[in-house]
Amino acid sequence: MFTIGDFARHGRVSVRMLRHYDAIGLLRPAHVDPASGYRFYEAGQLARLNRITALKALGFTLRQVREVLDEQVSAEELRGMLRLRQAELEAAMAAAAARLAQVEARLRTIESEGHMNTDDVVVKRIPAVRVAELSGVARSYEPEDIGPVVGPLFDELCRRLDEAGVTPVGPGIAYYEDDPGGDGILAHVAMPVAVAPGDGHDFAIVDLPAIERAATIVHRGPMDDVLPTTQTLARWIADGGHRSAGYARELYLEAGEDPARWVTELQEPLAG
């Protein structure tokens, strides 16, 4: 048997914590010396201590821990609970990382204000193009809401085109409109194709009309960082007395595995 100090060292907890567990009935000593009151523990009790420590670390209250352990939850059931809690924590960490990335992107936007050259804006005609496309709804037009919709849609569109034996004839395109069924944004992802319209495909064939006058600017890097570029374009439009006629199309000139090397042309239609 172990003294309380030895048991605490083997279990990597404090003596004070073991006394607390004893007081609330969560982990009783195997033996208490009636004369001295010293607590003694058996090696087999390390298994219960391990479960208590793991459940506590995963956010369970001591009351919840006691309920779990007193119900004689099997090792397999406990592993399942821990895996579920692990997934919840990983999701929370991913969400926190995404929020941090959003804050960093906004800071970069603020830091770049007035530093991007509006001379990079070019007005040109965007020709009509036939595309295969899929659509989905994003919560908002903010990059953090657009990216999780557009990325998987492109992956799915490419998969369907490959299954259909259709080879794209140009770089990918994304374009947007207000969702007619709600407050979100309807995102369309498209690949130029040389395919006649018709049934039989699990993607739409659409003829995108030409944009007679588009203010265009090239963005380099991940689309999560596109705000400084879009706001440079907006300043150029406002300073020149122009008026936007809708959401900008995105033409993905280079979109490889590394988002830092992406090259995207933003094509905002101009009224008049």
Low-confidence stretches: none
Strand content: 15-25%
Q: Share of helix among residues?
A: 40-55%
Strand and helix order = EHHEEHHHEEHEEEEHEE
Which whole number gives the mean pLDDT? 88
Distance between the termini: 88 Å
Protein name: MerR family transcriptional regulator
Pfam families: GyrI-like, MerR_1
Keywords: Coiled coil, DNA-binding
Domain HTH merR-type: 1-71
Please provide a written account of the structure:
- Residues 86-113 form a coiled coil.
- Residues 1-71 form the HTH merR-type domain.
- It is built from 7 helices and 11 strands.
- With 272 residues, it is an alpha+beta fold.
- The strands form 2 sheets. The chain has an 8-stranded antiparallel beta sheet with strand order 4-9-11-10-6-7-5-8, with helices on one face. It has a 3-stranded antiparallel beta sheet with strand order 1-3-2, covered by helices on one side.
- The protein is elongated and about 95 Å long.
Topology:
Elements: E1 2-3, H1 4-11, H2 15-23, E2 31-32, E3 39-41, H3 45-57, H4 62-70, H5 75-112, E4 122-126, E5 129-138, H6 143-164, E6 173-178, E7 185-192, E8 204-208, E9 211-220, H7 227-239, E10 249-254, E11 263-269
Antiparallel strand pairs: 1-3, 2-3, 4-9, 5-7, 5-8, 6-7, 6-10, 9-11, 10-11
Domain HTH merR-type: 1-71
Coiled coil: 86-113
Protein name: MerR family transcriptional regulator
Outline:
The chain is α+β, with helices and mostly antiparallel strands.
Characteristics of this structure?
272 residues, 7 helices, 41% helix, Reg_factor_effector_dom_sf, elongated, MerR_fam, 3-stranded antiparallel β-sheet, alpha+beta, 8-stranded antiparallel β-sheet, single chain
